[in-house]
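Listing S7. Sequence submitted for prediction.
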Amino acid sequence: MMKSFWDWYERTYTLNLSIALGLFLLQIVHLIWLFGAVVWTNAFGAPLFELTGIWQTIIVFVDYTEIPALLSVSLIYIHELRSGWRPKTALYLGLLLVQLLHMFWITDEFVLDVFIASGHGTVLPAWLAWVAILIDYLEVPVIFDATRRLMVALKEKKGLAGVKDALKEDE
């Protein structure tokens, strides 16, 4: 069964990479929010911007896409490691796995409680919020690498024709 999955994944690699990167690029919105609403507020006393209404709903939706993004991008590196050990690939996979740990260990709610509400309602130390923020930004090098991988895959598969071929093979 696993062999069938990885065979399918290999045949549709460009499509899978495109979907994974699309989900992962949404996380840039979250990182901008984190900087403008949380880090900036802590550094200068007022946020660069405040999200309300539909914009707040959008940022919450984007935050929830982090789980499928991390899982789909992790498959890229797991797939590559199946063919042999590469330290850089293992490093990127490690950065992603730290993200999963972070999501279940320290949430954005905790970070907001510490920085915005002056720590009320939490027993964890404030420095832990900075660790959580740093962990969130560990996505950035992986986003760049996944983008590079997609560019290479599109070039090798003759651009978007490779994605179309993958879609046809999946039918």
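Caption to Listing S7: primary sequence and predicted structure tokens for the chain studied. The chain has a mean pLDDT of 82. The radius of gyration is 19 Å.
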